[in-house]
């Protein structure tokens, strides 16, 4: 099983889009997306210096555009899962079919501008905390009136808040931990971004998303999201909610993902996965896609780990997946071969907090149960296959 990942803010590098402009149609596509995002993506990605492309209003659409531009040169129909870190979720949602690329880039432009405006309201920032006991680190964060913003795995938690409180935390770090200042404009993924969340929500309310065509993991809790409308709501909510990339890594491992491609500018997410899963059987093979020269390796990885290809007519199907961890209970009396309506409940995942309904997000024939009564399941795990017409 193969997953494609989209990086978030902080992964950008000056000139990283330059080699991609040699591909046919790439520059024209970026000019079109620039009009939608309200920034010059071509100039920023080729000539912008480190300070300019660190500007939140510019960085966010630049990253989403870069990921989508590179993905256009991959056989994405053989990719099973996708996820993105922070603003990278917009690109992931487009790759999963929830948003069009144009909508994703437009939302990234709005998101970046509104988050930059929220940063200007009060001097805030972010710091990475490395090492230390997790409970002690979180207790210190709370004691200093700060917020955990990113749980990146591998012992890294990024915290955010006012600059004076961040300075006090750096002067009094918990035992065994280090505090490193992160060069960003403000306290992303905290209540300080509430004005940006509200503004993004107004724009998102006018969008009609579609249902995901592949497994799409959410930063909110690492769970797979079955419905486009729910994912759109999560994308808005994520502006003020912590990024749980640690849970996304765990879901990738639970799903049995054997290979990962990180879209440009690549390297950050690959490093987090390697550190989190070091020495584990779940560590996937990884290709970091930074220039067109890396496309051959990425395509080879998809050929070896992606969905099997063939020329025979195949049944088009949607896979119903678990959104929570627990044990699966299919609806009694529902059998393979039965017709399923869109939105019909096909089972429940029994969790510690109670039963969570699992519904089909497309109509068709229940062609195969992929999990059975009382089977333990993980977020994103396929539970049933709903078949449609032949192609």
From TrEMBL:
It catalyses: holo-[ACP] + malonyl-CoA = malonyl-[ACP] + CoA. The keyword 4Fe-4S does not apply. GO terms for molecular function: acyltransferase activity. Pfam families: Acyl_transf_1. Residues 5-327 form the Malonyl-CoA:ACP transacylase (MAT) domain. Its EC number is 2.3.1.39. Keywords: Acyltransferase, Transferase. SUPFAM superfamilies: FabD/lysophospholipase-like, Probable ACP-binding domain of malonyl-CoA ACP transacylase, Single hybrid motif. PANTHER family: MALONYL-COA-ACYL CARRIER PROTEIN TRANSACYLASE, MITOCHONDRIAL. This is [acyl-carrier-protein] S-malonyltransferase. It comes from Plantactinospora alkalitolerans.
